[in-house]
Backbone:
């Protein structure tokens, strides 16, 4: 099964998903549909299960109950690498870049599933490998450019501040033209200018062929970019709706957003 | 981004790049030094005696073996105490192909590399889910078993006496020069291949999975693929080293491939700072080859002096300023 076996613009459907570790129920009865062409926000207090849901979607966790389906394709039982082949891409809550690779080399890993240079290309200076490497570097630079951080392309991650690392990791996630993009707290550690650029980049990423889900604590950002917001609380889906509906939901305000008067 | 912040970013960029890369004039001096060093290596046989030429030939072969161990550390994040087995595979392949088929090193070297790589893959598959100390001990088990296996099949392997490697590889050149130049050429080629490999997508994938398994898997890199690839390549390089070792020493025997051989390879890798560069690996190779010779007259003091020398090197390097240490380690892989 690969990317070409799934038509563009398919929804990601989560049906009655339950995940627990021992007796600790992390996710309970989660049912929602993440549509392509929208930016879906996923919010909730710490420990609500947002990252666990991402991990279920990418195959890092195996839910005990429920189904996840990408278009017509059931994902249960598929390994993370197989989901990556279907076009899944993500960033992490804790930045997971390789310190021994430069920023642009890290981003080039986002193009892994569409690369084909073999072992001979790896060891010998053959034209195919060289051309693919050059082309991937251009694509990676373009991804960095979309987030306004092209200038750090050849820097080591060990030399970059946390906000910049976050943007490099997002560039890695978007470099390979994913079908499903899951961004876990992309604005964490960013200053206001960088958050503004991230917001613009997210809006530009919106496409009819992309399911884009953003977990974020920055309410200004999530309210600005999201078409629909899902609110999780202690492993359950508390509410779903557009930003105005979520803002007006008294339960969400009580549990997560808080009153302005507080 | 605003002009101010971009100007600040440019300043920072300049500052960090000056930390990472030496300035152009110093880089020129380093390159000149490397060229001079290579010239010295190529001209060495003109000035050095036969004993030194022989010893340096072994040093180059050992340097390749050290690179094989360092490759596993750098790209796989794993430590092997059994790489002597893969070195032995290469050495015995060369000796056996000469004994039974009359093939010289030039013909048997690629076969040795493939045999070593296959052995590495066969070892890696069942142990693909073993990591850290568990894997190290597993490799040690290989090294412990090897001499007994070689002795058990003595009709093929020559038993205690071992086998001889006598055929010329390059007609028209004296044997002593062949024993020097062939391992040197092999070392340079291995280093160049690995320099090219470092820029490949496979190398990036191996390095990422070492840093973050979850991130790598989320981008399609399988952990079992990484382990198999890493061990296969490392074992293949070790077998190339073994092929050159057998040629340069003219003989292979079980005594050359004990557990101590594997431990000393790891020591050489540590001394070389896990370097995959020419000079780093030669430093490790020199330590591995020369130190026992230099200490040969010390009688019972040999192990103590050897251990002392090792401590001096490891602690001495550790005490260096971080910038110099990073340069000695070769910066990024």
Residues:
């Amino acid at each position: 099964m690969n990317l070409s076996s799934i038509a563009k613009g398919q929804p990601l459907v989560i049906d009655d998903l339950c995940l627990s570790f021992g007796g600790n129920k992390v996710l309970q009865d989660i049912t929602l549909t993440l549509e392509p062409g929208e930016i879906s926000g996923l919010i909730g207090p710490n420990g609500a299960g947002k990252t666990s849901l991402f991990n279920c979607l990418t195959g890092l966790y195996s839910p005990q109950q429920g189904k996840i389906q990408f278009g017509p394709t059931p994902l249960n039982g598929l390994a993370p690498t197989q989901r990556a082949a279907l076009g899944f891409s993500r960033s992490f809550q804790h930045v997971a870049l390789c310190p021994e690779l430069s920023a642009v080399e890290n981003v080039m890993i986002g193009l892994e599933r569409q690369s084909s240079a073999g072992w001979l290309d790896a060891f010998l200076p053959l034209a195919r490998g060289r051309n693919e490497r050059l082309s991937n570097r251009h694509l990676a630079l373009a991804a960095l450019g979309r987030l306004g951080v092209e200038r750090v392309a050849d820097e080591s991650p060990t030399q970059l501040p946390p906000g910049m690392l976050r943007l490099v990791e997002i560039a890695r996630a978007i470099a390979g033209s994913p079908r499903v993009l899951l961004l876990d707290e992309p604005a964490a550690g960013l200053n206001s200018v960088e958050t503004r650029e991230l917001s613009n980049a997210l809006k530009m990423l919106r496409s009819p062929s992309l399911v884009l889900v953003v977990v974020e604590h920055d309410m200004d950002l999530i309210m600005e970019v999201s078409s629909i917001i899902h609110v999780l609380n202690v492993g359950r889906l508390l509410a779903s709706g557009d930003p105005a509906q979520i803002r007006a939901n008294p339960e969400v305000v009580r549990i997560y957003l808080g009153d302005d008067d507080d | 981004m605003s002009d101010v912040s971009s100007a600040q970013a440019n300043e920072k960029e300049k500052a960090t790049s000056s930390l990472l890369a030496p300035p152009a004039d110093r880089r020129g001096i380093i390159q000149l030094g490397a060229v001079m060093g290579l010239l010295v290596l190529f001209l060495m046989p003109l000035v050095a005696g036969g004993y030194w030429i022989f010893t340096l030939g072994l040093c180059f072969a050992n340097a390749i073996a050290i690179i094989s161990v360092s490759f596993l550390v750098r790209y796989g994040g794993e430590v092997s105490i059994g790489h002597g087995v893969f070195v032995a595979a290469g050495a015995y392949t060369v000796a056996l192909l000469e004994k039974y088929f009359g093939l010289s090193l030039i013909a048997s070297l690629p076969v040795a590399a493939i045999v070593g790589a296959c052995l590495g893959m066969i070892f890696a598959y069942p142990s693909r889910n073993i990591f850290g100390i568990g894997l190290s001990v597993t490799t040690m088990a290989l090294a412990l078993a090897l001499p007994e296996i070689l002795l058990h099949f003595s009709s093929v392997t020559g038993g205690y006496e071992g086998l001889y490697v006598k055929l010329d590889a390059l007609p028209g050149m004296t044997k002593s020069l062949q024993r020097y130049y062939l391992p040197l050429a092999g070392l340079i080629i291995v280093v160049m291949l690995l320099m090219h490999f470092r820029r490949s997508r496979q190398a990036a994938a191996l390095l990422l999975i070492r840093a973050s398994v979850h991130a790598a898997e989320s981008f399609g890199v399988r952990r079992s693929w990484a382990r198999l690839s890493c061990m296969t390549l490392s074992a293949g390089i070790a077998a190339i080293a073994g092929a050159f070792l057998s040629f340069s020493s003219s003989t292979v025997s079980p005594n050359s491939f004990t557990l101590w051989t594997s431990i000393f390879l790891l020591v050489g890798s540590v001394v070389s700072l896990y370097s995959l560069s020419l000079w780093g690996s030669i430093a490790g190779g020199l330590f591995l080859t020369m130190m026992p010779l230099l200490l040969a007259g010390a009688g019972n003091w040999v192990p103590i002096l050897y251990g002392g020398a090792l401590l001096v090197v490891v602690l001495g390097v550790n005490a260096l300023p971080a910038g110099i240490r990073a340069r000695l380690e070769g910066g990024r892989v």
About this structure: Residues 48-328 of chain B form a domain with the ABC transporter involved in vitamin B12 uptake, BtuC fold (CATH 1.10.3470). Residues 60 and 185 of chain B are 9 Å apart (CA to CA).
